[in-house]
Amino acid sequence: MKMFSRGLVSTALIAGVLVVHTSAVAGTIRIGATMRMISENGQKYGQMVADEFDLINKNGGINGNTIELSLLNDECKSDKGVANANKFIHEQKVHLIIGSTCSSVSLPIVDVTAQARVPQIIPHSTNAKITQKGSAWVFRVPVSGRYYAGVNAKYTGENIGTKIAYICAADAASQNDCDAMQDQMRRQFNAEPAYVAQVQEKEVDFRTHMLKIKSANVDGIMIAALAETMSRALLQSYEAGIGKSVRRIGSSSASNAPVPKIAGDAVLGVFYTAAYAAADKRPIAQLFNQMVRDKYGIHAPDHDFSQAYDLVRIVEIALHRANLNLSDGSLAADRTAIRDAIASVDGYRGLASGPISFCAAPTPQCRDGNKTPVLIHYTKGGEEFETEVLARVPMPINFGLE
Amino acid sequence: MLEVRDLQTGYGRIKILDGVNVSVAGGSIVTVLGGNGTGKSTLLKALSGLIPVWDGEILFDGESIANLRPDRIVNRGLIQVTQGKEAYPAMTVEENLMVGAFTRSDKQGIRRDLDKVYDYFPALQERRRQLSGTLSGGEVQMLVIGRGLMANPRMLMLDEPSAALAPQVVLNIFANVYRISQSGVTILLVEQNVRMALLLAGYGYIIRDGRVLIEGPAEELSGDESVKLSYLGGTVASREQMSS
Amino acid sequence: MEALLGFLIFGVTIGVVYGIVALGISLIYTGLDIVHFAHGEIYMFGAFLGLVFAHQYNVPYWLAILCAMIVTGLLGIVIERVFYRRLTRAGGGYTVAGMGMIICGFGMSVVLQNIAFLIWGADAEPFPVNFGMPYQIGEIFLPKSYVATAVAALVLMGGLHVFLKKTKIGLAVRAVAQNKDIAFLMGINVPLMISLIFGVACAIAAAAGVLIGPMQSVQVEMGYLMLMKAFAAAVVGGFGSLPGAILGGLLVGIFENLGAAYISGSHKDIYAFLLLILVLMFRPQGLFGVEAKVKA
User: Fold this and answer.
1) Which ipTM value was assigned to this complex?
2) Pick from B51, B70, B85: which is nearest to C185 by CB?
3) C251 and chain B: CB distance < 8 Å anywhere?
4) Domain ranges of chain B
């Protein structure tokens, strides 16, 4: 626990715009990024995005052009995210928007970018609706929640049982995860939920629910909540005397580092689907883990980091391909060119659990880049947590859309 | 013992006292008389330090106590006894009395003074474990006087001890005030009950509209037509008209 | 039946913590005539300080509670001296300066939250305390941390009771709380007592924060919900009444757990306020309502 130490760096980040390298060469590609940078993780991956673009500039930029990144914190609040997006579009005249990292923020921004005709690429938001709005301007790097639920449900039904209790927090991502899981359990196993508890986004006391779940004798508990809320629920499930034989299923936030840190040993055996596992044995993943550990002091990067990194690489590829004028009059044309260039990215293989491909149609099939969720479970809790890959599951492209 | 010179004070911007002069000799009983809203209570508050003194001087034993914090004034032995309704209703009788002894640490002295108070007011001893909120009006008046005595005062300032009490209760209280005075405590008695106050006191002041209207020995004042008139209302001018 | 007992245990363990915080709010209300809206943040500061003592300086848990109480108490005294005193009129009075004081409390809550954010960041911090295996009575699990919480709460209440009823300073504190002018006239250093009241109220809030840490982890935003529940507890018990605050806390804790168990588990926080409305409908002064204070 590093108390007192990180205050100043983080405030500098939160306080405002972080401009990377402004020397005027041939032209400037303006990118606006809005992310949740209130937690330690959030500040670090924000920093990583800034550093990676900086590195591209230092290596000669994109076809001689320089990238100018404006990085803002939306604190995972939709009003701030929308304000940031409007600022990017109307004041800073950006060519591309990155963001957000929260579904509840990304969702309204999709409407803003569609109307203003600015390409938007999302590093981390799982809510299935994001790509179902039919916007031609949105791209999602992570795995959509519609795939997560299918994989979670399949594994749960086949290996654990079908009598499942649900604790669903009120934030958009968790609601989505919770509904989708229940829906998939019905579709795949004809199983109704054994118990459903709707709780507040930041609920602190779950013990009554846990006691009721205990007396319901379930096979598993799905806890769909943001990291800190989930950790408390995990801890209190043991306080209420629910034994290890009842498996805990996490929503997508289970991958966030605060979960094993706060929940400690209560995180053992919790499994979840994600787009990246630090336990990934591929060399590229090991190198990435090492880089994040050395540079940002993060013990094991979760998919927030890997997706932010993949996003920068995909943007880099697309910008190289796009034919940009970068004059005052060409803003609209440049925005369209960048959109089309991102849509042309096909079969990118980076840190993500599967290849990332986009295409031109404004449909979830085209705009949900990663279709290969990975099932992960915790084998050790605490700050130095460890995970293991249970399964890597490529999903049919239309899954969850019918 | 107490010298008040040209005292000016008030609340906020409203001036209540406009140059009051009062003098109290050691061992005496002096009374300050006046109707409602004439500034009697304001005078006591200024003497006790509850409100700031705007101008003028307050000397206690020759030293200035104007604008000292109330607890510092108490430490010098000048104690105000508030009106009867102001006991601590949620405390027992004895706890109320012990609040009076807060500044003292001489356990034996406190014990002795407690016995003394119970000697003056036996009713309090009977009810020492009761909440003071359950006492009668006269008993509460006894309680607040007793609480003042527990501070081991050299001078006691009483704020209308007769207010809203039956005549024989008033008599009992005034008799005890006399006993207290006999024990060597100087008394400043603020009253509306002119007849009783002038019977007890040796010297009196009558204040009206923030100034001392008349002063003099008690027996002279009790014969003065204007003393009665100052309670009946009317201005100085009208008083002069009536007497002419 | 066992389930009912379980719900009651949960209700009591969270209820005593509500009660302790409510105790501080009531104490400040009687002593300073202000409704202290930043008390949730004081509680949060206490929890973080407890965490610092327990995990950075490795002091035992019970000592961490004590250290957090002392430091938070001093912090409270500084806040009262530097900020609130200017708003409550000096000398006789200390009456509510209208809305100003309430807004100042809200402002202080924002300031404290941001200071905590700068020092400790927005992440929730775990507060692991190893109490060992829970007691098991039949089918019921009783974590030792709950027992510790209940015992600590009892010790705090008992300590406060003895302090107020049996010591000279406690008598003076009660005198100041009931009527400042008279307290002044009896030679009590009223400003000092007011600082003391505020400090004590903050110290016990800190204890609540450290007690709840292992159960709910520690986070900058933790104060808000606790403040709401503690207010409900204080009002249910009768604002300004100290035994009422504790009873109110227990009632709110039990009521919300039983409500969540037998009515509907969702939106559990409603029950605290439902209880509040019910009590106010039939007993507007609260269960232990004291008569209106005599104001000079």
Assistant:
1) 0.80
2) B70
3) no
4) 2-77+154-243, 86-152
